[in-house]
Design brief:
6 helices, two-stranded antiparallel ribbon, eight-stranded antiparallel β-sheet, single chain, about 35% strand, 12 strands
């Protein structure tokens, strides 16, 4: 389900791809939401909702604070992502909550439903419902997701023109994927504060001897012939040592200068280089 919105948007784009774009009529219901403040996002960074939830936002988008959430408009102004919360007392079912989402935020009034998916539970949420709407004539797409946790519906909507979806697909997906409820944010902060309060143990001779024993025993347990390990503390290399042999069954010791195949570590390096290219 993590990438359910990506799949949904690709389906929407395929549906609309051959149609001629026309000007659209803004749904009057979208004008009834209470807007508090609008700012321009100046860096890719997490944003906090009125309830204390967080998710990633992107440079160049315009963010409007709502009474119960946040609304984002893409730099070109033709795509929108909205997050807000509803009370389960006011909206009893997921269908009721999603209808309210579309009443507020659908880009035009005459959107036709063409796909519905639901899940009973996922990652601590219940009663999850996703509905895709589209208007072929005007090239407009809308995708809404609601899910329940405790006494709240957590609602997300993204909508706009097909061409804007193609351009902003990854960013809107990541806004959805990186969402953390207020209680999850609080737990992460508590863990971070605890770790920050810990005093780093100096890597002295006693620590080195203890570490050598741990590595040797672990290599025997998992039948690892050789390894090279470096420990960095306070931006300084405090331990660099080879263990075992370069060739199984032979007396060819591994040293801190032994070269190893990089293997799957290339995935992280490739992802970093791609992200850096996007940033530049």
């Amino acid at each position: 389900m993590k990438h359910l919105l990506t799949t949904a948007m690709i389906a929407s784009i395929a549906l609309l791809g051959c149609q001629k774009a026309q000007d659209t009529q803004v749904n009057e219901a979208t004008q009834n939401t209470t807007q508090l403040e609008t700012i321009k996002i100046t860096a890719n960074e997490p944003v906090t909702t009125p309830s204390g939830a967080q998710f990633m936002a992107y440079k160049g988008w315009k963010m409007t604070k709502l009474a119960d959430g946040l609304e984002f408009k893409s730099p070109e102004g033709s795509s929108r992502y909205v997050y807000y919360e509803l009370s389960t007392d006011a909206f009893k079912t997921s269908n009721d909550a999603l209808k309210e989402t579309y009443r507020r935020y659908a880009p035009i009034s005459d959107m036709d439903e063409f796909d519905t998916q639901s899940w009973e539970t996922f990652q601590g949420y219940t009663d999850i419902l996703q509905i895709q709407y589209a208007n072929i004539e005007s090239q407009q797409v809308g995708i809404g997701v609601v899910k329940k946790h405790g006494d709240k519906w957590y609602c997300s909507f993204m909508g706009g023109r097909q061409d804007a979806y193609v351009k902003r697909l990854g960013q809107m997906q990541n806004m959805y994927d990186t969402f953390k409820r207020a209680d999850e944010v609080a737990k992460e902060k508590a863990v971070s504060d605890y770790l920050a309060s810990l005093k780093i143990k100096p890597f002295d001779a006693a620590a080195a001897a203890e570490f050598d024993t741990f590595i040797t025993n672990t290599m025997k347990k998992f039948d690892v012939p050789g390894a090279a390990i470096v420990i960095v503390q306070n931006d300084k290399v405090v331990h660099a040592k080879g263990y075992g042999t370069r060739v199984y069954g032979q007396d060819l010791p591994v040293t801190e200068k032994t070269l190893f195949q990089i293997g799957s570590s290339t995935k992280m390096l490739t992802a970093y280089l791609a992200a850096e290219a996007v940033r530049q």
